[in-house]
Amino acid sequence: MQKLNPLILLLLLLTWQNSVAQIPGCTDPLATSYNNGATLNDGSCVYTTVYVTPATTVILDPVVSETSGLIAWNNHLLTINDDADTYLHELDTLTGAITNGYFLPNVNNYDWEEISQDSLYIYVGDFGNNTSGNRTDMHVLRVLKSTLTSGAPQIDTIYFSYADQTDFTAVSGNQTDFDCESMIVTEDSIFLFQKQWVSHQTKLYGFPNIPGTYSAPPLGTCTVNGMITGATYLKEKRLVVLCGYTTSISPFFFLLYDYPGHNFFGCNKRKIGVSLSFEQTEGVATVDGLKYYMSNERFDHSPIYNSEALYTFDLSSYLSNYISGLTLSSTGIDQATRINIFPNPFTEQFNVSFDRMEQGNDFRIFDINGKEVFFSDSKDLNQVINGKNWSAGTYFVKTPDGSKLKIIKN
């Protein structure tokens, strides 16, 4: 009888101990499916339908009548228009007035739809694609923050396409699932949340946040029953808040939180309606994860007219318990290597995602007997692994520093 390698035996023992200690289930007390005994959030939380009303409302300057994104920066809000305008507009949150403007020279605005940021750069997404669904020039402008106020901002460009879009036949307006108006930026990646006019879902894509040309792979899909138009991201709180509107032009928030790594659809997903009608919500921003700004562009479809406006909302009733109770140990991600695997269990294929680019982003996958079934030395942050022909059972993903994660093939 062949003896198992002692290291494999130790790995199996540690995996068994971890599986015994962790009880998967819904860990959010606000959910109707809350499991008081659960210790590992498995994304199964179900919530009742709720609506929120704005705490404040201000009418914006008509110059930003097509406001299309928001970020909180330098103690102000910045917004953009989704037409030919190539300014970043600074807003007074109390009056709606424009207090400053930052001109971006030598660039065009074909369809700017989102603005985001990291510690060094502001990113402007020129990826609106609702006219005919067949753009081949989608890109993100990256503006160095330290040069923005100088009058000569340093700008470079990141080009991308959707890896799963193979048909570029023109379609009618607002009849494509390859539109996008939402973007967040992490330490080294850009993530897009599609605005799917046909499916009323949102699909996640990711690619590096450095200049280049990328084919962005799809990383997951989430049903939102509406069109996603804006996003804001708080890394330390593991929180993404999307905004959008339904087919009847009713705005909403869509909360994603307590997720592992960059698997933003991997845990709590909660839709919160907004008690407003015919408001074409376009941007969302927050500083603390509790108070939110939401902007809408002018809605002028006779006999209905709503001015461009900025609203504030208090979502502390839905997020304060989560934020105050955050613990890094509950992420379900290997903190040493920042690697995440989803879906898990899987049937045919799964994603391996790294939080940051490192020289050691290679990994090996072993079956329960210690036989290597897969090896990768790719430097891509996100990889799709085909395990269709693997036998059902338990596998182990091992990184060079000895960190390991268990994955199950159904």
Describe this structure in words.
This protein has 410 residues and is mostly beta strands. The chain has two domains: 6-39 and 335-409, Immunoglobulin-like, CATH 2.60.40.3080; 50-324, Neuraminidase. Helices cover 7% and strands 45% of the residues. The strands form nine sheets. It has a five-stranded mixed sheet, with no helix packed on it. A hairpin with a 4-residue loop joins β18 (227-234) and β19. The longest helix has 16 residues, at 6-21. The protein is globular and about 70 Å long. The chain starts with 5 loop residues before the first helix and ends with a strand. The relative contact order is 0.12.
Question: Top keywords for this entry?
Answer:
Neuraminidase; 3 helices; 5-stranded mixed beta sheet; Immunoglobulin-like; 7% helix; 410 residues; mainly beta
Question: How do the helices and strands line up, and which of them pair or pack?
Answer:
Blueprint: H1 6-21, E1 24-25, E2 40-41, E3 50-52, E4 56-59, E5 67-73, E6 76-81, E7 87-91, E8 98-103, E9 112-117, E10 121-126, E11 139-144, H2 145-148, E12 155-162, E13 179-185, E14 189-195, E15 201-208, E16 212-216, E17 218-223, E18 227-234, E19 239-245, E20 251-257, E21 268-274, E22 280-286, E23 291-297, E24 299-301, E25 304-306, E26 309-314, H3 316-324, E27 339-342, E28 349-354, E29 363-367, E30 372-376, E31 382-386, E32 393-398, E33 404-409
Parallel strand pairs: 1-2, 3-21, 12-16
Antiparallel strand pairs: 4-26, 5-6, 6-7, 7-8, 9-10, 10-11, 11-12, 13-14, 14-15, 15-17, 18-19, 19-20, 20-21, 22-23, 23-26, 24-25, 27-28, 28-31, 29-30, 29-32, 32-33
